[in-house]
Amino acid sequence: MSGMQVIILWLNVTLPVVGYWLTYLLPFITLMVFFFIDWRGFLIYSLTSILLVMMLVQPLIETTLFYLLPSWLLGIGYGIALKKKASLLSLLVFLSIIQFAILALIYALTLEFYQLDLVAFIYQIFNLDRNTNVVLLDPILIYAIALLQVLIGLLFIYPLIERFKLPIQYQLYFSKNELICFYGLFIGTLLLVIFVPSLAFFGVGPLALFTIYSYVYFFMKPASYAFYLLLMGLILYPFIHAIFSSFLIGPYRIFSVLFLSIFPMIIALFNSITQKRENALI
To answer: How confident is the model over 157-199, as pLDDT tens digits?
Structure first.
């Protein structure tokens, strides 16, 4: 397995056009080792991979920072999620937060040691003026990139997970544990908006993912009251956003999306209360 990692990383250096897309398979290699081998074997695998990369792949620091370390962490994340039989929503949230932390670390290190601002480069691509206020949106932009990378990775890895018959959840569902996380994230973000607005941007990305997922999920449910309640929220949102815009300036207006989270939370709470079975799906 360590040899396969080295081959992919070597191809990424010598043939970037081919090797880059193969790097999306690196977390799967770590996943297979983590899932089927005990922690001692996994430790040996990890140390062997680092030693082989040090001896055979250059540049070492960039390869480790941008590819080996992120794929190792994501592979562990996949392994934990599959062992816990996580739902698709839980898997996306868990992996996207890990990837967000990785990208934030890479951004900080490249800015410190290479004087390279990766986020500023992305703003240039979209022809955006990165002024003082817009900088506040950096956490949301980084999270969006992290989520996109996780989704692309899942497109590569899901067929392999199915091929090796690993436990994976395909169906959309909402568990009570996910509802607790949804409420906790909403309340935490709301409190940050009130007391430390600049930090609240870190919660907007995962909260938006929960909200979008819940809208898709409840629109697919047969209950008519859920459909009309969500539709009412979407109709009212432009007016709420206009009200928020009257006293919030610049990037802070994005906090109006918290309004959209209220309606699926009401539906989920009602369903969880009316469920007769403990830990039933909502």
So the answer is: 888 888 888 877 666 677 778 888 899 999 999 999 889 888 8
State the total domains in the chain. 2
Can you tell me which residue has the tokens 């018959």? 165
Asked whether 244 and 255 are in contact (CB, 8 A), the reply is yes
Kindly compute the dihedral angle of the four CA atoms of residues 147, 149, 152, 156, in this order, to the nearest 10 degrees.
-120
Is 212 in contact with 96 (CB distance < 8 Å)? no
- How far apart are alpha carbons 92 and 209 in whole angstroms? 9
End-of-domain residue from the set 169, 204, 220: 169
Element (H, E) at 199: helix 197-220
Same domain, 44 and 164: yes
Q: What is the CA radius of gyration of the chain?
A: 21
> What are the percentages of helix, strand and coil residues in the chain, rounded to 5?
85, 0, 15
- Residue range 204-214, pLDDT digits in tens: 999 999 998 88
Same domain (yes/no): 105, 238: no
Same domain, 181 and 243: yes
Rounded to 5 degrees, what are φ and ψ at 280?
Answer: -70, 160
Specify whether 117 is located in the same domain as 145. yes
For the stretch 143-146, contacts whose Cβ atoms lie closer than 8 Å and that sit 24 or more positions apart, written own/partner, are: 143/96, 143/100, 143/202, 143/204, 143/205, 143/206, 144/205, 145/103, 146/96, 146/97, 146/99, 146/100, 146/102, 146/103
pTM of the model: 0.81
Beta carbons within 8 Å of 185's beta carbon, 6+ residues apart: 203, 206, 207, 210
Domain containing 127 equals 1-169
- Of 147, 169, 191, the last residue of a domain is 169
Q: Are residues 89 and 195 in the same domain?
A: no
